[in-house]
Amino acid sequence: MANILIAEDNALVRSALADMLEHAGHTVVQACDGKEALAALEAAPADLVVMDIFMPVMDGIELIGHIRKAWPGQKVLALSGGGARLGADTTIAMMSDLGADAVMQKPVDNDKLLRSIDALLAG
Amino acid sequence: MPPTEDVQGRATRPTPNGVSREAFIDAIIAAAVFIGLLIAFMSIEFVELLFEYTRAGEAWQQDELIAAVPALALVSAWYSLRRWFQVSRLNRSLRQALTEVEAAREHQRITEARLRESQKMEALGRLAGALAHELSNMLQPIVTLSKLSLKRDALPEKAAEGLRRILEAAESCADIAHQALAFSGGKAIQRDPALLSAALSDAVAFATSALAPTVQVHADIDDDPGLALIDRIELTQVITNLLNNAAEAMAGRGRVNVRLDTRVLRESGGNPRGLSGGRYFRITVADDGPGMAEETRAQAFEPFFTTRAAEGGTGLGLAVVYGIVSGWGGSISVTSNPGGGARFELLVPRIEPASAGASSDQSDDAPMV
What we know:
The structure holds 2 protein chains of 2 kinds.
Chain A: E1 3-7, H1 11-23, E2 27-31, H2 34-43, E3 48-52, H3 60-70, E4 75-80, H4 88-98, E5 102-105, H5 110-122
Parallel strand pairs in A: 1-2, 1-3, 3-4, 4-5
Helix pairs in contact in A: 2-3
Chain B: E1 4-5, E2 11-12, H1 21-42, H2 44-55, H3 62-151, H4 157-184, E3 192-195, H5 196-209, E4 215-220, E5 227-230, H6 232-249, E6 254-265, E7 278-287, H7 294-299, H8 317-327, E8 331-336, E9 342-349
Parallel strand pairs in B: 4-6
Antiparallel strand pairs in B: 1-2, 3-5, 6-7, 7-9, 8-9
């Protein structure tokens, strides 16, 4: 099982994802914005970062930029709520261009998310 | 008053009452001649005075008087005719200028209406996108925790049934969020060049199969080598929504005509749809239902606008169609009269196959719109 860092500003979404991943046997660290996520990664490496895109303080777009510079091999899965301000097309294309290994649209089904996580960890 | 130009570009200086100076002077001269004649023939003293002054007291001969009257009448008629021609010419110019002003005003009105419509739909798209984003976010814990709870052991059956219903409701909400994203243009779609006539035939066949047999769908779609940058699933969604809309409008009984042809739009500003000039596929879906009132027609593509709320309509079907067609770089419009059915017209940019070349330009005679 893997160490997974969740970066998500919405506490309900974050805790629900954490419950689901822990139920699947993973160890989860939670961060409520990009800055906290960077601090958590510096403190302890993670096998996978599951991140929201729009967050306060530091959003997912900036976060993935920092991750790609500091930890080029870090696995990243981005979850998009639809990209309200930018549009889903733009958001998903941008996150892929920036180096997200996978981008999924919320609400994502538990089993689909777990299968994607397994595929990323195995890759 | 500053000089202006008439419709032929000639400079004119209008008098305060709007008649040209030339015609005005002619009218004054004609009036003076008329008044002079009137005074002359009504005042014996004046005639006598004139005799004395001009002929030193000699009496006028009768033939001289007879000759003077038609001469004066001719002068008067000349001025009158000349003025009549000038006023007629001026009237024609004014009518032509008025027609041009009316046409310019109409064009301005259409442009402003199109701009307002475009801004309104853009604002609605942003709103729908923002709502869909928030809805999708908040659905995540509902879906995740419901599914997680269903996996736990020893869950009472009634609680499990409740969770399954919560999941069903969440899936319906997610579907609405995805449709709202499609309207806002925020749905991620890979669009590839496709043979539109073949894709449309398939979409019509698919959509028709789900309709009641009492709804007759007549497709007039000829084979066409032209391509369009679309997604076939989106096209099926568009046609399904339009045919379902027609079937519901006709209360499940009637005829729908689907037609494909090509139109050529003039360059920007010359067409009423805000599209750039070029060749477009035109897909027409027309039903013989009761049609719709103007206020309904004007709001037909707005998200969450529905006339079938009681039957569970979400008001997203036509909004999704609008979003998809806009995403193709095309446009959709609807014309309808109460009792006269509804006619949806889609314009989709056309890509000619590279191998076809100029010789296959079979629709050069396509009408300009």
